[in-house]
Structure formats: C-alpha cells, structure tokens
Amino acid sequence: MNNKNYNKTKTFPKGFLWGGAVAANQLEGAYMEDGKKPSVADVMPNGVFGGPQYDAEYYPTHDGIDFYHRYKGDIQLFAEMGFKVFRTSIAWSRVFPTGEEDQPNEKALKYYDDMFRELRKANIEVMITISHYEMPLAGVEKYGGWDNRKWIELYLKFCEVIFKRYKGIVKYWLTFNEIGNNLNKPMQWVTAGIRTDLDHLEQRCFQGSHHQFVASALATKMLKEIDPDAKIGSVIEYKTIYPITCDPQDSLVVQRLKQLSFLFPDVQVRGEYPRFIWEYFAEKGITLEYEEEDFDILRKNTVDFLSFTYYRSRIASKDYIESVQKDTKGTDVERKDNKLFRGDKKILDLGKTNPYLEVTPSGWSIDPDGLYLALEDLYQRYNKPLFIVENGLGMVDQLVDGTVQDDYRIDYLAKHILAMKKAVCNGVELLGYTTWAPIDLISEGTGQVSKRYGFIYVDRNDIGEGTLERYKKKSFYWYKKVIASNGEDLA
C-alpha cells in the first residue's frame, strides 16, 4: 500500500461510526473521589507488566489525565474532530466500590449522567465497555478472581444498574474488554482478577473465562429485556498470525494458535464451545466446572456484533513450540507458553521478526494487510457485523511550538483505514472504527504516558509532572478531515 492509492476505493457506508476509544482507569484519575475505591488497575504502578504492588511511591492511574474533571473540554475537542461515537468504560469500582454494596454509588452515576449528556449534546453516540480492566480490588481480595463463580452475581448487579440508568442513552454495549487475554500472562490480573503467581494458572484462567462467558450471555439477555433497541457485543484482541516458513509443521502451530484465539468469539457469537477445546482440556488436565444450564444460556444469548482490537500481526514456528515442549518443568512451560500468545518479537520465532514488515521503535509490526485479513477471517467465520474498537500507533511524540508533527501516526492510520475500505468493498459489514486513543493517556502495559497514541497531546510525563494542558497534534486536523469525508480523504 502506498500514499498514492489512499483515495482510490469506494467510501464507507452512510452512518459509519468514526470515533475514539479509551478506558476509565487509564484517563479519569480521581481514583478515591466521590466514593470510589481502588480497582485492580490502581495497584499497578508500572502497568500490567510490572504487576500489582501495594507500596509504590507513585501510581499513574490515580491521577490519569484528570478526565474526571476535564471531560467537558475534552469532549469539545472530540466534537471538533467530528466524532460520531466515543467508546469508554464505566468504572465498576465507582458504581460499586467493593462490588458488594446493596445500592450503587449515586455520585458515580451522576458523574456518568453528566458526561454522557455532554456527549449527546455534541451528537456523539456512547459506546460503553462494562468491564475494562477495572474490577473492584476489595472484591478480588475477598473472593479472588473470575475463577470464583461469585463474580457472575456481582457483575450482573452492576449491569442491571447501568442498563436501567442509561436506557436510551447508551446504544452500544461491550461486555468484556479483550476477553481472550485471560490466557496471556501477565494479563490475568486485569482481565480476570487472577494472580499470576497462583498454582494451576491455566486451569484458573479457563474457569474464569467460562464464568465470564456465562456472565456475558446473561448480561446480553438482561439488556434485551431492559432496552431492546440497544446493541451488545464483546471485545477480542486479534493479531493476524503467519507461519515463519512454508514448512507444514509451522502452519500446524499457527492453526492451533488461531483455534485458541477463536475460542472466545466462538462461544460468544456462535453460542457454543468449539469441539477441539475439549480435547485440549483433556491434554492439559483441565477440568471445567459448570452448571448444566450454562450451555443453554450460552446458546440462547449470543452477541449482536463482534468487536476487536488490532495493532499488529505476529509470527510463529514449530521450533519455538518444540523448545517449550522439551521443558518438562511445569512452571517454566506455563510461563513460556503464555508468553507465546503475546506475540512478543523477542519470544516468538526465537527472537526473529517478520522480515517483510516495518516495525515501530518499540518493536511492534506495522501490518495494515493483517487488518484486512482479520476483517475477512472474522466476517467469513461469524457472519456478524464487525466493529474495530482499537487501532493506533504509540510513539514518543515531541511537542514543539504547541503541536506535534506526527506524520508517522497519520501514515499508520491512513494505511489501516485503506485496508478497512478494501474489506468493506469486498462485502464485510463493518459498523465503525474507534482509534486508540483520541487523547494521550496512561499505558495499561507499562504505566507510562510517554508512549503516546492520541490526536491530542497531554502535558504529563511518566513521573506525574506537567500542567495537563491539551494541545492539538497534526493528526487532529487530519482525522477531522477523514471523518468529514467519511473516509474518502486520507491524504
């Protein structure tokens, strides 16, 4: 793909939802204000890859970028770009600070009332992720993670409150963010409240996933009863995966990895576990605990659409799998095997990256064709509308004279939008596209601000210094033009 071809495909359908995506724990701040209590994200000073710590000097999520107090100005900036939709989350530990309260925190609901009102005044639709890496910490400390079935009850109580409160206001709901990351160490802490130092981690993660599947299906049923006009989906992380060679054994490895990644949408979109997973459980010695009605619940309450995040592709080979299989020490196998799912360039394929692709300074592949393949694969497999809810480029931006000349971000996004156009013109039903993120925020992975994704620069550094003032980057004006032309003007 090259810049000269940006404008040579047909337009997106009328009503296509352009916008941006964030998560409450990564930008709101005010982590103990108006009755809120800590979430699992609030004890990670260095993000997911640093793990939970209780004695750090500085926790970036506690202040975020102060969206809690500055949302009106930020929404005005989103409106200036022409956003059609804004994806965020409702912080669970604001509404139910421990997860167990009998009544919700009214101050928290009032905050979201006001924020959603601002969005609707700006003609921006609201898309809400119900659980986006922010389980109430007190509940996790009492019950453990989602491997405890108690969380189904607590989650549905949360859902009932927000579904009723925001009936007719929120038109698009997402049950869980990147639910498949339950299998990716060390993501289990934020996705499912499961500590990664526990025994039988894989068993716990699949058990937690089952409980989330049931909770998602019951939430889908509940929403249809409360607000039949609303739409509900879930979120998977998707990385197109290639074999490193044409060796059939490499392709077999890729097939198994794809099967495991398809497990999550298979259950939520098709309503049943794929056949291969039961053999996988037998091989791994995993025993799934369930109630008889669970499978009927899953079958009858599938999601309306499938949304996914896409940043990069990955590669795999038989050589790495074989090196893991030769190690018979359980803990080490588990560690390495879970890292395989991350797509880390230093892990996959014995340290090699895809030689046909550019990579970012942080080592992530840049692969817009991989996004096209993802759209084709997912639509052909599920025949349900798709929604890209995260896609973006994280870079260390330089603020000069009140702006950022981020042509690299424009180039990345333009090529991915062109890949989307190609899929749409080939018959893929794509509802919308929300970039990650429209404004600089806290990294979930590292707890940093310096790896920036936004169209809006926030004056904040990695140790909490800065004015928090907002500045429009060059990409701000570019994305405004993209939206105004419904994806036609990408230059």
Automatic annotation (TrEMBL):
Cross-referenced PANTHER family: 6-PHOSPHO-BETA-GLUCOSIDASE ASCB-RELATED, GLYCOSYL HYDROLASE
Keyword set includes Transferase: no
Active-site residues annotated for this sequence: 390 (nucleophile)
Alphabetized PROSITE patterns for the sequence: GLYCOSYL_HYDROL_F1_1 (PS00572), GLYCOSYL_HYDROL_F1_2 (PS00653)
Species annotation: Pelolinea submarina
Protein name, entry field: 6-phospho-beta-glucosidase
Matches recorded under Pfam families: Glyco_hydro_1
Keyword vocabulary terms for this entry: Glycosidase, Hydrolase
Keyword Zinc among record annotations: no
GO MF annotation terms: beta-glucosidase activity
GO CC annotation terms, alphabetical: cytosol
A GO BP annotation: carbohydrate catabolic process
Family of the protein in this entry: Belongs to the glycosyl hydrolase 1 family.
